[in-house]
Amino acid sequence: KGFRQRLEADTVRMVVRKPLRQRAHCELQVVNQFLRRQNIFKELSDPMLQQVVDCLQVNNYDPGRVLVKRSQRIKGILLVLNGIVVEQRDAASEGDMSLSGGRSASQLAAPCMLGCPSDAEHCHTAQPEFWEGRCHERSWAAADDHHVDALFLPLEDLKGRRLQTVAVHEGLGPGLAGLDLRRQGRGPEGWDALGGALVADAVDQRL
Predict the structure, then answer these.
(1) Is 150 exposed, middle or buried (0-12, 13-18, 19+ CB in 10 A)?
(2) Of 32, 99, 136, 175, which sits with the fewest C-beta atoms within 10 Å of its C-beta?
(3) DSSP code of residue 72
(4) Cβ(56)–Cβ(124) below 8 Å
(5) Rounded to the nearest 5°, which phi and psi values hold at 108?
(6) Which residues pair with 151 in a beta bridge?
(7) Dihedral, CA of residue 166, residue 161, residue 114 and residue 93, to nearest 10
(8) What angle (nearest 5°) sits at the alpha carbon of residue 167, between those of residues 13 and 34?
(9) How buried is 123 (Cβ within 10 angstroms: 0-12 exposed, 13-18 middle, 19+ buried)?
(10) What is the model's pLDDT at position 166?
(11) What percent of the chain has pLDDT over 90?
(12) Considering just the CA atoms, what is the radius of gyration of the chain in Å?
């Protein structure tokens, strides 16, 4: 499980770094299934989810780098792909993007999401008025011994597209619309083979 999770995260990172026109359908399926497992995205219609994918960016953070700071205005949603982030309850003064002076509290391992208010619901996140005045509730930074890669969805893009959720029928779950290799008869080995091929392709293109 751990190996497949890391392989999937690496594949998602490299696919998102590709220009839009160079992304193969099977690659987008990997990204879509990954996003479907996050509460904020799981009930979006397929066209809306594709718009989200088109807006995603990949951000990289060195060990000790602050990802978000408490009380700062939310500029986007971060979905951590790999690494560990730690909460800083005594984060340094505003504008200081290092861990100096901070005391580590709880920690989160990838995959995890930062930037969504605790009261966020699927039907609210795409409404511009929901985000007015919203600030980060906690400060999070990359752990001292971890490089962190994260997907970043700019808030302006999320608001501008006014994404609308569509309930997914229980019998027509994301597996039928996205990547469900077990149902396609490929099994874990097939998934590993596909993921390995995608990674190899991305490496060849130096992503």
Answers:
(1) buried
(2) 175
(3) S
(4) no
(5) -130, 140
(6) 58, 79
(7) -150
(8) 15
(9) exposed
(10) 41
(11) 34
(12) 18
Query: Is the separation of the CB atoms in 134 and 124 below 8 Å?
Result: no
Which has the closest alpha carbon to 156: 73, 45, 35?
73
Asked whether the beta carbons of 81 and 151 are under 8 A apart, the reply is yes
Entry pTM: 0.67
115 Ramachandran zone, left/alpha/beta (phi>0; psi -120 to 50)? left
What pLDDT band is residue 152 in, cutting at 50, 70 and 90? very high
pLDDT tens for 95-144 read: 444 443 444 458 899 889 888 776 555 545 556 677 778 888 899 999 99
Give me the amino acid identity at 179: L
Nearest to 117 by CA among 96, 144, 138: 138
